[in-house]
Design a protein that fits this description.
Protein name: Immunoglobulin superfamily DCC subclass member 3
Low-confidence stretches: 631-754
Mean pLDDT: 80
Distance between the termini: 110 Å
Number of helices: 6
Strand content: 35-45%
InterPro entries: FN3_dom, FN3_sf, Ig-like_dom, Ig-like_dom_sf, Ig-like_fold, Ig_I-set, Ig_sub, Ig_sub2
CATH class of the largest domain: Mainly Beta
Largest sheet: 6 strands, mixed
Pfam families: fn3, I-set, Ig_3
Membrane topology: Single-pass membrane protein
CATH architecture of the largest domain: Sandwich
Keywords: Disulfide bond, Glycoprotein, Immunoglobulin domain, Membrane, Repeat, Signal, Transmembrane, Transmembrane helix
Radius of gyration: 55 Å
Helix content: 10-25%
Shape: flat
Length: about 750
């Protein structure tokens, strides 16, 4: 590596400037490095030749004797200037310096007459454009305004504010604008202060709010905000994004103007001025944006490097600024053009030169530029070359062995072969960029290499270099050869039964298939030898429905991929539709629309069902309790006892069956038809029927005449809500006293409520 003193570099570069008409101008340029160094100047990219008006000084600076914005021939001395320095190692270009003529326009805003009541706020403004920015001062009655008066505020943009007006503030005002180009006076305006201070309430009002500003770092921003009202409002500032404004470099001018000194990029944002009525939440707001730009500057400079022939050189150049700068690379002062072995990456931040040779030896510059300014940095590439290195290897040949293998062979160099320690084979897909190249090392006694794991039907380029302990030879001739084609691999295949006559074959596209033109689909019944197909499908198709199948047999489905080299191996699947048919018969398809409707009312149905179930349980418990208390179902307030004659067991059984609905068939008929117990049956079975009123009230059980009268009150429920069952009586117990036994009472139990 070379020391910094040997590098060609700028000590002083030309800077932006504003020149005065008909005045001399000097642009400075100072360079260091290995002599001899030649310095030249350009304006707008065109070489400047020495003349009477412009010539170069001995120290390399450019001297313009009489700067003119417009010359007689229409040319101008305004423009972008840069200096170029060149020595034996390369050429260097300075940053661009923008030179403008000092000017001043006429006032386009003049102060206006104003009549304001005492205690109010007066504001005058005058505006003028110029280069450099004019300095504006105010005069009252032809005398400079006293800036020591706290009620008078002068803002840099030509604004005069007067608060707490008094009678002595009345007068004639005008402004004076000054820069290196000229001095100009505005028109006069009269201020009249009328009346006495008013005590009438007035809502807060912002007379003038902040305007949008675009400035550069280290400048000063003044955001104006002047408010009026009675009582006088309190002015406060905040950022719209909620971030604190801070205190460093912050100052309030007058009664509410915000001044920010030494701007940074972090000061960018939207600022809100608020005028608040004291002691209340009544407020008025206005806002303006502040954009702070930063010229480009380098975070990382490119470094000079030395590399042997055939290796890779990488330069890195990282710049920042606001807005983000654009990066451009130069090679010996000329725009660098990319090629197969010169690449730019990472938004031009990284320059890579592959397989360098002596022609790549140069000075490389990184130019970073944005709307706020530009800067440059440079680095030199030295290509190392040793005498006595081998000549390039000879007779490089490449032969295709298979779809994934190529054999490369070569012969030893013609010159300087004694110091060879090995060879390096450089391999790359012909369609890939240079940076995708990879290498394989080979011993010095080997003159062929089998390159494997290549892609089928793909072109590859190869070249060889011979290496010694002092460096590498130049590259051999490049040879290009293609691998053989290959049939596609087996595709994955899945079968899905759609219905009793249709299945769907699906497969997944995969790079493992290799290059293929499409798919072929076959299918057949397993007991047949003949396939149906092929069904030709495009390479982007991934599914196919096979229809009109027989559900009673098993099918074989076969899929393969094909290309120009032939058919690949097939994937086979077997499928039966019989189970689908059986499931369809056993489980008919659901009525989805009906289920959806049922689901909508399921919650209401559950609630109603719970209520009905609880009611049924209560009634069943009551019926069981009453059934165990007595053997007969009684009616309340029975006026006349019901009695029944003795009858054979068969009749009694029949009667019981009739009372209970006779048979399950009758009960089912009653449930289905909704019929109640027929009253005629009671009349036929109980000849001594009670009156209609008694029938409505209930039924009493019949007793044997000899049996004691035992009346049990059971229920007052209506008759039509019950049916009566007579159970088979148990064997009659013997009467110990010899008295006639009581007739066995039929065991009636209430039937479940329908």
């Amino acid at each position: 590596d070379f020391g910094r003193s040997s590098e060609l570099a700028f000590v002083v570069e030309p800077s932006d400037d504003i020149a005065v008409q008909e005045q001399p101008l000097i642009l400075y340029c100072q360079v260091e490095g290995i002599q001899p160094i030649t310095i030249t100047w350009r304006k707008n990219g065109v070489m400047i030749l020495d003349s009477e008006n412009a010539f170069m000084l001995a120290n390399g600076s450019l001297y313009v004797s009489r700067f003119q914005r417009v010359r007689g021939d229409g040319s101008s001395d305004e423009g972008e200037y840069d200096c170029m320095a060149q020595n034996h190692y390369g050429l260097l270009v300075s940053r661009k310096a923008k030179i403008q003529a000092a000017t001043m326009s006429d006032f386009h805003i003049h102060p206006q007459n104003a009549v304001v009541e005492e205690g109010g706020v007066a504001r005058f403004q005058c505006q003028i454009h110029g280069l450099p920015e004019p300095v504006i001062l105010w005069h009252k009655n032809s005398m400079p305004v006293n800036t020591d008066n706290e009620r008078y505020t002068l803002l840099p943009k030509g604004v005069l504010q007067i608060t707490g007006l008094r009678a002595e503030d009345s007068g004639i005002f005008h402004c004076v604008a000054t820069n290196i180009a000229n001095v100009k006076f505005s028109r006069e305006a009269r201020l009249t202060v009328s009346g006495s201070h008013s005590t009438v309430y007035k809502d807060p009002m912002i007379l003038v709010g902040p305007e949008n500003l675009t400035l550069t770092v280290h400048q000063t921003a003044v955001l104006e905000c002047i408010a009026t009202g009675n009582p006088r409002p309190i002015v406060s500032w905040s950022r719209l994004d909620g971030r604190p404004i801070g205190v460093e470099g912050i100052q309030v001018l007058g009664t509410g103007n915000l001044m920010i000194s030494d701007l940074t990029v972090q000061h960018s944002g939207i600022y809100v001025c608020a005028a608040n009525k004291p002691g209340t939440r009544v407020r008025r707001t206005a806002q303006g944006s502040l954009v702070v730009q930063a010229p480009a500057e380098f975070v990382q400079h490119p470094q000079s490097i030395s590399r042997p022939v055939g290796t890779t050189a990488i330069f890195t150049c990282v710049a920042q600024g606001e807005p983000p700068p654009q990066i451009t690379w130069l090679r010996n002062g000329q725009i660098l053009e990319t090629s197969d072995h010169i690449k730019l990456k990472n938004n031009n931040s990284t320059l890579s030169i592959y397989g360098i040779n002596q022609a790549d030896e140069a000075i490389y510059q990184c130019l970073a530029e944005n709307s706020a300014g530009s800067t440059q940095a440079s680095a030199r590439l030295t290509v190392l070359w040793a005498d006595g290195l081998p000549s390039p290897p000879q007779g490089v040949r490449a032969e295709t062995v298979s779809a994934t293998t190529i054999q490369v062979s070569w012969e030893k160099p013609l010159q300087n072969t004694k110091e060879i320690i090995g060879y390096v084979l450089h391999i790359r897909k012909a369609a890939d960029p240079v940076e995708m190249e990879y290498q394989e090392a080979v011993s010095k006694s080997t003159f062929q290499q089998l390159v494997t794991d290549l892609e089928p039907s793909t072109s590859y380029s190869f070249y060889i270099k011979a290496y010694t302990s002092r460096g590498a030879s130049k590259a051999s001739e490049v040879t290009v050869v293609s691998t053989l084609g290959e049939v596609p691999a087996m595709p994955s295949l899945f079968i899905k039964v759609i219905n009793s006559t249709t299945v769907q074959a699906t497969w997944e596209p995969s790079i493992k298939l290799g290059q293929h033109k499409g798919f072929k689909l076959y299918y057949r019944k397993v007991h047949l030898s003949q396939y149906t197909g092929p069904v030709l499908l495009a390479s982007n198709v991934t599914a196919y429905n096979i229809t009109h199948l027989d559900a009673s047999v098993v099918y074989e489905v076969k899929l393969l991929a094909y290309n120009q080299h032939g058919d690949g191996n097939s994937t086979v699947r077997f499928v039966s539709l019989r189970e689908t048919v059986e499931r369809t018969v056993l489980n008919p398809p659901c009525d989805c629309m009906k289920d959806e409707q049922n689901n909508k009312t399921s919650t209401t149905g559950i609630i109603i069902g719970i209520h009905i179930g609880v009611t049924c349980i209560i009634f069943c418990i009551l019926f069981l309790m009453f059934g165990y208390r007595g053997r007969l179902l009684m009616c309340k307030n029975v006026q006349e006892q019901l009695s029944t004659p003795q009858m054979p067991r068969s009749q009694r059984s029949t009667t019981g069956l009739v009372l209970n609905g006779a048979t399950r068939r009758d009960r089912d008929d009653r449930d289905l038809n909704g019929k109640q117990l027929d009253m005629n049956e009671l009349e036929r079975l109980f000849p001594a029927s009670p009156s209609q009123e008694q029938q409505e009230k209930g039924i009493t059980s019949a007793h044997s005449p000899s049996a004691p009268h035992d009346e049990t009150q059971i229920s007052t429920l209506p008759l039509d809500e019950f049916s009566i069952i007579e159970e088979q009586p148990d064997p009659l117990p013997k009467n110990p006293r010899g008295s006639s036994p009581a007739a066995p009472a039929p065991n009636h139990s209430p039937a479940n409520e329908g």
